[in-house]
Amino acid sequence: MNSRIPPARRRTLAALAAFTLAVALPAAAQKKYDPGVTDTEIKLGMPMPLSGPVSGYSVVGKVAQAYFKKLNEAGGIGGRKVSLLIYDDQYSPPKTVEVVRRMVEEDQVLAIFGNLGTAPNTAIQRYMNTKKVPQLFIQSGAAQFDDAAKSPWTVPFLGSYQGEGRAFARHILANRPDAKVAVLMQNDDLGREVLKGLQQGLAGQAKAKVVAQATFEVTDPTVDSQVVQLKNSGADVLVMAATARTAAQAIRKTADLGWQPDRYLNFAAASVKMAFEPAGAEKSKGVISLAVYKEPMSQRWGRDPEVLAYLELLKTHAPDVDASNGSGVSGYLVAALMAHVLQAAGDDLSRDNVRRVASNLKDVRLPMLLPGVLMANSASDLHAYASMQPVRFNGIELDPLGPVLQMK
User: Fold this and answer.
1) Domains 33-160+302-389 and 164-291+391-406 alike in fold
2) Is the dihedral of CA 220, 279, 242, 93 positive or negative?
3) Per the count of CB atoms within 10 A, which of 2, 24, 45, 248 is most buried?
4) DSSP three-state, residue 278
């Protein structure tokens, strides 16, 4: 029968059939790339303080790089290898601007992710949103990064700093309802927002109140004078909003003065290796904080398969990283979450789609998270951590303190 159809007619029918098949294919099968992506590569950027006052946190970048090296050996993401570019920003806002412009305009990365600090990320937030380049899972919980209307290309990784302050207030009221609270706070949004959340949580209480505040700069050599000032206030509770180096100084000075307040420390600083051990394990005993991941050298997790896999990664791909430094786990988690987003984006690796996926996490459970801790966000609350575990340092490791708290 087909032989009776004129050649011109057969060609028309064949073209129509091909067109029909093409439009019937699902949209997901259509590849969509933006700068930084090819059929074989996904290019990402990560500013890191490889030098400067908080260079101890450079372990975050080292472990993230190790994570992607191992992932690439296993085939990458959708057959694409991930190239992670890490440049030193020294935890200095002007330097962050410089290295991010290089990543975006010269290296043509798909996105940047996982970089540290409120001030460095503030310095690039407007630029990233103007350029419409994803600024994902930044290591800050400041409220200014949780604004889907004004800054839809920015997504914070940490839980809300104000949420941490409110969580501390709830625990203080339950255990010392007539507390006199002193606050040692970094002179930036970290300190101000922990204080704001603390004040919100204490509002309306007849007795418990903040009686003293002292600020410091991240570059200050010590905070000894601030601790003396706060001790003289007569406070019986000390809330610290700091990085690990300053927290270690404050814990040590508090003990040396013979001052014994109940002590609370924000999540980002509560590192056994970087804060409690430098301060002195005995002097740090009893400090209360919040946690999200399994400490890799904790006896509690000694046989845990996820911890063993993490330690094996360090052994094979980051042998210079101290396994007892739990801050490395943050680098592992932020890399794993970034990989989750890229995998979920499929072949639509446009910057806009990657941003959308990163802003709509649905109860993501990643290896090394504590039981009950999940990642979830939306336009109404972009912070990736949806829950956190209250903990107390026992002189060796962090003990769970009550149930997991929902931070949303």
Assistant:
1) yes
2) positive
3) 45
4) helix
Q: Given CATH 3.50.50.60, say whether it is the number of domain 164-291+391-406.
A: no
From 372, 157, 399, select the one nearest 270 (Cα to Cα): 399
pLDDT tens-place string over residues 324-364: 998 999 999 999 999 999 999 999 999 999 999 999 999 99
| Beta bridge partners of residue 112, listed in sequence order | 45, 135
Q: What are the structural domain ranges in the chain?
A: 33-160+302-389, 164-291+391-406
**What was the pLDDT predicted at 396?**
94
Q: At what angle do helices 327-345 and 305-317 cross, to 10 degrees?
A: 100
| CATH class of the region 33-160+302-389 | alpha beta
Q: Give pLDDT tens digits for 190-224.
A: 999 999 999 999 998 779 999 999 999 989 999 99
In a 13 Å sphere around the CA of 275, the CA atoms on its Cβ side amount to 29
3-state helix, strand, coil in the chain (%, to 5): 45, 20, 35
Residue in 170, 194, 190 with CA at minimum distance from that of residue 182: 194
